Amino acid sequence: MRLTDRLSQPQRIVVVIALGMAFGAAGIYLVNLRNTAFGWYAYTPLSQVAYPPHTGLAGWLRLILWLALIGLWALMSVRMLRPSQEEPPHD
User: Fold this and answer.
1) With b meaning 16 or more CB within 10 Å and e meaning fewer, what string describes 61-73?
2) Angle (deg, nearest 10), helices 59-81 and 9-31
3) pTM score of the predicted model
4) Which of 7, 69, 72, 75 supports an S-S bond with 11, CB 3.0-4.6 Å?
5) What DSSP state is assigned to residue 49?
6) Long-range contacts made by residues 66-70, C-beta under 8 angstroms, separation at least 24?
7) What is the chain's pLDDT, residue by residue, as a tens digit (91 residues)?
8) How many CB atoms lie within 10 A of CB 16?
9) Which residues contact 85 (CB under 8 A, 6 or more apart)?
């Protein structure tokens, strides 16, 4: 018996949406880890060499990170939303 077998379908959908939001927050955090540029870029102290505008992760690395998080969310969603063993399949 899975932990989610006791949840109804609407409750499972809420869990999948919450899981997507959690993965989204984690993705935003991970993508912006090394990004020192923040705020309004035209402000004089932030436009110096010490704060270059693109110091975060490389674009391809951000893409791979987002694709991995989206793939993980999709797999978790399929697992969460599949019918339990006791339920007969709907035709």
Assistant:
1) eeeeebeebeeeb
2) 170
3) 0.68
4) 7
5) T
6) 66/27, 66/31, 69/23, 69/24, 69/26, 69/27, 70/23
7) 577 788 889 999 999 999 999 999 999 988 888 766 555 655 555 555 555 556 677 888 889 999 999 999 999 999 988 887 665 666 5
8) 18
9) 5
